[in-house]
Inverse folding.
């Protein structure tokens, strides 16, 4: 089973700043099966990125994903008020999914 | 617009069976390359994949839960369901149903693109 480790646990940033979130896998992954989600308090997770770098429907261009092998990154180019939330990476493989433990992006 | 809605008891006694239903609206559960998935989130915020069912009835379950899970699908009602037996306090969580998009022919994966709002299940006597 793939283990996904996200860092940092918490990211304290100001509006307009760039956020860089990391997701490291315990083994090399296909880029096809890596996704990112955003979750706000009291809400279900929302798909942001699939296939490492493809934005889901309706997701703003300030969200971008990249990476390969064991290292994947979610970047938010300029933080907007609605971007302060918890972000999870997810891997789908062997007909099952695993999630990272999440990174909280909070207002500094 | 596809929507998912979980329903079921919010309180289950230890050793009993947790039963949840997810109702799909806005599209047929039988169309497309979708896995109908259950995921839970513990109070400490971690997300755990429970398993999925395809509209044909084929399933795949998390190995750690496999011995206690049964999933089923009712295409006539556009619903799928989860039963988790012999629950303990460790099964207390928010349970989500979700649609997972996967193209079986091309092996392209499009993520968990539609989620229900989640339902809180507490295991307690």
């Amino acid at each position: 089973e793939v283990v996904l480790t996200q860092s940092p646990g918490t990211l304290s940033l100001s509006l307009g700043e760039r956020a860089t979130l990391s997701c490291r896998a315990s083994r090399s992954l296909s880029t096809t099966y890596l996704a990112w989600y955003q979750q706000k308090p009291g809400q279900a997770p929302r798909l942001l990125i699939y296939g490492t770098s493809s934005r889901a429907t309706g997701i703003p261009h300030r969200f971008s994903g990249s990476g390969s092998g064991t290292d994947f990154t979610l970047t938010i180019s300029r933080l907007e008020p609605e971007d302060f939330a918890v972000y999870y990476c997810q891997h789908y493989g062997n007909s099952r999914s695993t999630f990272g433990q999440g990174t909280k992006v909070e207002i500094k | 617009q596809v929507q998912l809605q979980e329903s079921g008891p919010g309180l289950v006694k230890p050793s009993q069976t947790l039963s949840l239903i997810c109702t799909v609206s806005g599209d047929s559960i039988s169309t497309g390359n979708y896995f109908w998935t259950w995921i839970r989130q513990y109070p400490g915020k971690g997300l755990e994949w429970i398993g999925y069912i395809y509209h044909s009835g084929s399933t795949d379950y998390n190995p750690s839960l496999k011995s206690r899970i049964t999933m089923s699908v009712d295409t006539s009602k556009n619903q799928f369901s989860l039963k988790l037996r012999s629950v303990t306090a460790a099964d207390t969580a928010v349970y989500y149903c979700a649609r997972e998009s996967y193209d079986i022919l091309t092996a392209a994966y499009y993520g968990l693109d539609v989620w229900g709002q989640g339902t809180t299940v507490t295991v307690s006597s």
Summary: Residues 11 and 105 of chain A are 5 Å apart (CA to CA). The interface with chain B takes residues 32-33, 35, 37, 43-47, 49-51, 56-57, 86, 88, 90, 92, 95-99, 101-102 of chain A (CB under 8 Å).
